[in-house]
Write a structure and sequence with these properties.
The complex is a heterodimer of chains A (310) and B (357). Chain A is an alpha+beta fold and 310 residues long. Chain A has helices at 2-17, 23-29, 91-94, 116-127, 293-301; strands at residues 68-72, 165-169, 173-178, 184-188, 207-213, 216-222, 242-251, 254-262, 271-279. Chain A has one domain (57-90, 102-304): Lipocalin, CATH 2.40.128. Helix content of chain A is 15%, strand content 20%. Chain A has a 9-stranded mixed barrel. In chain A, helix 1 runs antiparallel to helix 2 (23-29). Chain B has one domain (3-42, 53-333). Chain B has 6 helices and 10 strands, in the order H-H-E-H-H-E-H-E-E-E-E-E-E-E-E-H. In chain B, strands 1, 2, 3, 4, 5, 6, 7, 8, 9 and 10 form a 10-stranded antiparallel β-sheet that branches. In chain B, a hairpin with a 2-residue loop joins strand 6 and strand 7 (256-262). Classes of the chains: A alpha+beta (310), B alpha+beta (357). The interface between A and B is large, with 56 and 57 residues.
Amino acid sequence: MELEKMKVTLFAVVLLACAPVFLRAQNTAQQPPARGTAAAPAARVPTPGEFPPYKAPHTTDGKPDFNGIWQSFVTADIDIQDHDAQPGPHPDIMGAYGAWPGGQGIVEGGEIPYKPEALAKKKDNAAKRMAVNITSDDRRHETGDPELKCYRPGIPRANYMPFPFQIIQSTDNVMMVYEFEHALRTIYMKEDKETPKDPPADSWMGWSHGHYEGDTLVVDTTGFVPYTWFDRAGDYHSDALHVVERYTLVSPYHIMYEATIEDPNVYTRPWKVSFPLYRRMEKNVQLVDFDCVEFVEKMLYGPYYKNPGK
Amino acid sequence: MGIRSRASLIASAILMAVVLFLPLWVTAQTKTAGASAKSEAKPAAAKTWVAPRTPDGQPDLQGYWTSLSFTPMERPAKYGDREFLTEEEAAQIHKEGIQHSYEFTFNDLAETPVYDATVYALSAWQEGVAPNRRTSLVVDPPDGKIPALTPEAAKMREAARKRGPNQDYADPKAPVKADVAEDLNLGERCISFGGPPILPGAYNSNFQIVQAPGYVTIEYEWNNEIRIIPLDNRPQLSQTIHRWHGDSRGHWEGNTLVVETSNFRPGATFQGANAKTLKMTEYFTRTDAKTIEYKFTIDDPSTWTKPWSAIVPLSHMEGPIPEYDCSENNNDAVNILAGARATEKAAEEKAKNISQR
């Protein structure tokens, strides 16, 4: 039980530090953990990053079964690279609610291999992450973090937002439904006339095809708009972004997630992120609404209001 | 790419116009066809067709579907108590509906230069919508009419009618109230395009069903709004949690998926029903490879004097359901608000000029 308590405490600390977006999740997370059935003591305390050999359960049509509600617990949405805790915007009124936790990055090797001019743009993005200038054309996408504006997070960011997502796995399609802005993607498991290999249009969540390699779901996604970011630190890509994700069930409660990110316009070589996804285990857990559109209207459209600023 | 979202103002207008005027229009369209009414035999059910199953044994509703229909919600008076049209009448209405839909979209081209109707019009003639022999979507009560409102609901609706809409697309000269984003409707705000129930719109009545063990999911194309329906008999959410599309629980009765929905958000219910008392039950039954019979029953004793039901045929269509980015490119919200400010400014200038003379 000591370990359980530590886990719950750690969980609560992370959630508390992560400000208002986490509050709802926290409510359910703070329920006392269900006491497991008595079992023989584990051989040893698990070592983070290591999973013992595991054979994943299969669906009735013989595929590794990814159905469930999943969530990451990294702080990569703030910065996918190593970062200190920060006060967040408006500490004068937001206090600890608005502060952002520090954390270890998810980028393999630590650094994103930006081209020099691209690194400058990333820094400029970060400096202007809260610059909101909404026009009735594409200029609205030139500045500011899309998350702030409640836009679809894109891939891989959707997978490490501090919100759960649900995998609905059928034979022909694997749907991933994210609680954040009910963003979703359908991963087509076959290529045909309706779902050809090439993207019919660019989109925020990309155009994805998948296949299984053993017990790993491999998802290949292209066709992105150039507007999504990877984090609040301004890490970005162009419309040449190509993401290959690998989802591997490594325990009944974990998926090891890995994504290879390629974009010759922005990086000197492909690079990787990885982190585990945790199965949400609260009894009757389900997604609820986080339709943040209504929370950002005043920020976005306020300048066009009858009494701006009121 | 936002091409569709840029057209969403037009879409909302079309949707509203068609929902409001469909009965009248169908009445007008069918003047000639009505005279040759024959027997009222029910459409023959397919005899040999066996409903497919998913690998885990659920009846398989998966695929791409459209609820597009040319049948009015309520039965036009001329049909009296006739529940079904003749094949000829139904075919004629269908033909005219397709033609009307075609003309409607192409007539709008000048006003929607970014909207390439030849590519993006998600329109009747491009989809697999099948003729419907019913004279109305409402099947119960048997007169094909939505039951009377309760006195309280009638009073509220009359008050809303007197207030008028904040934006009246049917009347370009009508004043627009757009002081803040909340003055716009939920669709214009990219918050919700409504439902359940699933009803026909003028276009883009499209959705996808995906099933996994223990779940049926319905993804509407409008704003990619999604309903994830658990089938495991779990209890309803607490009444303190509200959802834009309500919160659904499903179970199978034979080959029929029965879905009960509650926890609606006040202000986001069908026809202004009372979110606290509204009980909505939907029935999905696949009747052949290309059709789902979709029935819904609405029971809200604080809004209608008795429960009522409607049947909307869902026709198989070609996929996929693309991303519908909406808030990401909500230029309508900017333009409506900015337009209202420009109108105010022009009025101020005019008043100033008059006073200076």
